Amino acid sequence: MTAWRDYAVVTSAYWGLTLTDGALRMIVLLHFHSLGYTPIELAALFVLYEFFGVVTNLVGGWIAARLGLRFTLYAGLWLQIAALFMLSQLDPSWSREMSVLYVFLSQGLSGVAKDLTKMSAKSSIKILLPEGGTSRLFKWVAALTGSKNALKGAGFFLGGALLTSIGFEGALIFMAAGLAVVLVASFLLLKQFAGQPTSKPPFSRILSKTRDINLISLARFFLFGGRDVWFVVGVPLFLDEVLGWSFVEIGTFMAVWVIVYGFVQAVAPRFVQKSPDGVTMEVIAASLWGGALAIVPLLLAVVIYLLTDQIALTDNIAWLGIVTVGELALFGILFAINSSLHSYLILAISDTDQTTLNVGFYYMANAGGRFLGTLMSGMLYQIGGVEVCLIGSAVLIAAAAILVRGIGRQETVTNVS
What we know:
There is one protein chain. The protein contains 14 helices and 2 strands, in the order H-H-H-H-H-H-H-E-H-H-H-H-H-H-H-E. Helices cover about 80% and strands about 0% of the residues. The protein has a single domain, classed as MFS general substrate transporter like domains (Growth Hormone, Chain: A), CATH 1.20.1250.20. Strands 1-2 form a two-stranded antiparallel sheet. The chain starts with a helix and ends with a strand. The protein is mainly alpha-helical. The radius of gyration is 21 Å and the shape is globular.
C-alpha cells in the first residue's frame, strides 16, 4: 500500500509540473512571436532549456543515487516555481537583447526543473515495482508517459487560454502559485519513500554504460530530435503564418494533438507482441514502428509543398489545413508508440540498482536530441519553411529506427572514466 501511495504522490507531482511546462512553452512561443521575434530568435529562447536538460539528466541520476529521489523531486518543483516567478518579472521596457537573455536564463532554470522531476518519476516505477513483472512494467511506464503527455497537451491549451485571458505576467504568477501548492502537498505526503539511496556511486559511474544502454539512449537522441525539429518552431509558426490560426486555435490544436498522443502512449502495450524475456520482440517492434514513423514527415513535406504551390494559384487554404492536421495526427500516433517502447526498454534492460543512473543517462540523450531539434527547428524553418523541418525529421527518426534494432544482439560493457 505504501508503494502505491508513494507512486501516486510522485506521479501527481510530475503531472503538476508537466501542466505548467506545457503551458509555459506555449506562452513563451506565442507571446514573443506576437512581438515580432524571428524563428531563429524564438528557437534561441529554448536553447538553454534543452541544454540544461542534457546536463541535468547526466548528473541527475547520480544525484538521486546519492541523495534520493525525494530530494530530486522537491528540487525540480521548487526550481520550476522560481523559473515561473523570474519570467513574470520581465520588464517590457528592456532592450530586445536583454529580454532574450533574461528569457534564455529563466528557460534554462525551467529545463533543470523539468528533467529533475521527470527522472524522479520515471525511476520510481522500476524501484517500486516488484522484480520480474516485465509486462506490468511496460503498462506502468506507458500509463505514466501517456498521462504526462496528455497533461502537457492540456498545458498547451492552458497556456494559450491564460495568455489570452490574463496576459503574460498574470499567467506565469497563476501557475507558480498552483505549483507551490503541489510542492507543499508532496512534502507533507512523502514522509518516507522507497527511492532513498542504498549506496553512493562515484561520479565516474554516470558514463559507464553497457552497449544496450548506449544504443537505446542514442536512438532516443535521434527520435526526439526528429520530433522537435518541426515541433518547437516549425508547426506553430506554420499554423500562424500560413494557415492564419489564432493563438487560442494553435494552443487548442497542439493541446489536442499531445493529449491524443498521450492516450496512444498509455495503450501502446496493446500494439506490441510481448516476448518471454521482455526485450526481444519489443526491440523488433521499436525498429519497425520507427521505420513507419520516418515515412510520415517525408510524405507531409511533399504534400505541403504541392498544396502550397496550388494555394498560390487558387487561394484555397482549406485543403492544406485538412491534410496538415490529418498527417500530424498520424505522426502523433506512430510517435507515441515509438516513445512508449523506448521508455519501456530503458527500464527493462536496466538492473534495479542501476536504474537512476541509467535513466538519467538515457534522458540526457533525450534532452540532447531535443536540444539538436530545437536548434535545427528555427534554422531550417527560416531556410525553407516547415517542409525542410519535416525532411530533417524523417532523417533523424530513420537513424533511431536503425539503432534500436541492435539492442540485445551483443552485450559488452564500455567503461568511460
